[in-house]
Amino acid sequence: MSKKEIYQHIENNAVFKGLKVNSGIQQPEPVNHESVKRFLNKSRNLLPVNDYVTGILNGDITLLSKAVTLVESANAKHQQLAQDIITQCLPHSGKSIRVGITGVPGVGKSTFIEALGSYITRHHGKLAVLAIDPSSERTRGSILGDKTRMEELSVDKNAYIRPSPSAGSLGGVARKTRETIILCEAAGFDHIFIETVGVGQSETAVHSMTDFFLLLMLAGAGDELQGIKRGIMEMADTIAINKADGNNIEKAQLARIQYNNAIHLFPKKESGWDPIVLACSASQKTGISEIWDIIEKYKELTIQNGYFKIKRTQQATYWMHETIQEQLKRNFYNDHDIKLKIKDLENLVLEDKLSSFVAAGRLLEMYWKMK
Ligand code: GDP
Nearest CA to 113 among 101, 126, 125? Predict the structure, then answer.
């Protein structure tokens, strides 16, 4: 470590009160091997942008993971570095098929991702599996919180599994997931799965960053019971009735017919794609290759009719606006003066002395004046 780097040690920042890192005597390098040096490099020692970018473009998983950690960090310096890395990776991204996979906890998402994912890495290429639900919002069934549930994929060198960032608003997590997609694609992952628990708002976010949307359902459980809203079914490009095995096969076939009727009552899709309903068993690995064939057919059709590109462009503009909104909001709520004032106005609203609109107006006016 150079003297300059020691002087700029992160813990010398004023926020670490009582801590002072003195510049010491430069020690000789203990080992020369590149990978060992990298290992010894503590995570707080940031690398130059180019090191991350070159590593990612060479498919180096360690550097990819470090860059994703920067994307997830709330630290302004990390964020700046992350944005620089993303900008340089952007021209190398986009060459993948992005698949959103949703379904209520227990439907078999992790088992399914393991089955389809292993099929893909065996026959078609590399796969990154990301999640969008902030862990704090998760109920049981967080596939990625518990990697051991995907035994095969978690040791597959062609697969990269990244758990969802542990905290933050859905909007924030969604943006980070979208940025992570870019990094994974630049690292050569040509298949991206984004998993979400299909009970909240998150599937809209997943839909806004994927090419193909797959909904997993169960036979014999009413839609009410599965908590799946009509809007989510409407978004689906394919519905797979999972657990079609053992005594459940007949029920699954019946459900397939019912859902097939239901899905065709929805308006025709802009993509020109006719949604498909089929039955599968993630644990028995039946219907899995068929689902892959469907995804490939979808890609072929939408590339041919131009929708694939249109959707990606629409998504890029959508994310531009989402990012603006998120950053404006963050900037407002993190403002020192606003923080001081907001409690007073909140109390006035609680005491019915001020309407919420007037209070919001006053705070916003104060904010604009300061800018
Ligand atoms: P997730 O919460 O949606 O990720 O669901 P999991 O993949 O953890 O699966 C929930 C339970 O259903 C586990 O006990 C699985 O072994 C079981 N399961 C998953 N897929 C199938 C399937 O195709 N058939 C059967 N019979 N069980 C399954």
Answer: 101
Q: Which atom of ligand 1 is nearest to the CA of 242?
A: 23
Q: What's the 282 CA to ligand 1 centre distance in angstroms?
A: 7
Kind of pairing between the strands at 127-131 and 97-103: unpaired
State pTM to two decimals: 0.79
Q: Where are the beta strands (DSSP E) in 38-186?
A: 97-103, 127-131, 159-162
Identify the burial level of 98 via C-beta atoms within 10 angstroms of its C-beta, where 0-12 means exposed, 13-18 middle and 19 or more buried. buried
42 CA to middle of ligand 1, Å? 39
Model pLDDT, residue 115: 95
Ligand 1 surroundings by CB, under 6 angstroms: 103, 105-111, 141, 143, 149, 242-243, 245, 281-283
Considering only CA atoms, give the Rg of the chain.
24
Tokens, residue 195:
């998993």
Atom number of ligand 1 nearest to Cα 149: 8
3-state secondary structure 230-260: HHHHHHCCEEEEECCCHHHHHHHHHHHHHHH
CA distances from 78 to 13, 49, 54, 61, 126 (A): 14, 11, 18, 19, 28
Q: Give the pLDDT means over successive 10-residue stretches in the chain (371 positions).
A: 42 46 40 49 74 95 93 86 94 93 88 95 93 56 52 89 71 84 95 81 80 91 63 89 92 90 88 94 95 96 95 90 84 90 93 94 93 78
pLDDT of residue 371: 78
Domain ranges of the chain: 93-304, 319-370
Per DSSP, the three-state class of 215 is strand
Spatial CB neighbours of 194, under 8 Å, sequence gap ≥ 6: 98, 99, 100, 101, 130, 131, 132, 177, 181, 206, 209, 210
Q: What are the b/e assignments for 103-129, b being 16+ CB within 10 Å? A: bbbebbbbbbbbbbbbbbbeeeebbbb
Arch. (CATH architecture) of 93-304 = 3-Layer(aba) Sandwich (3.40)
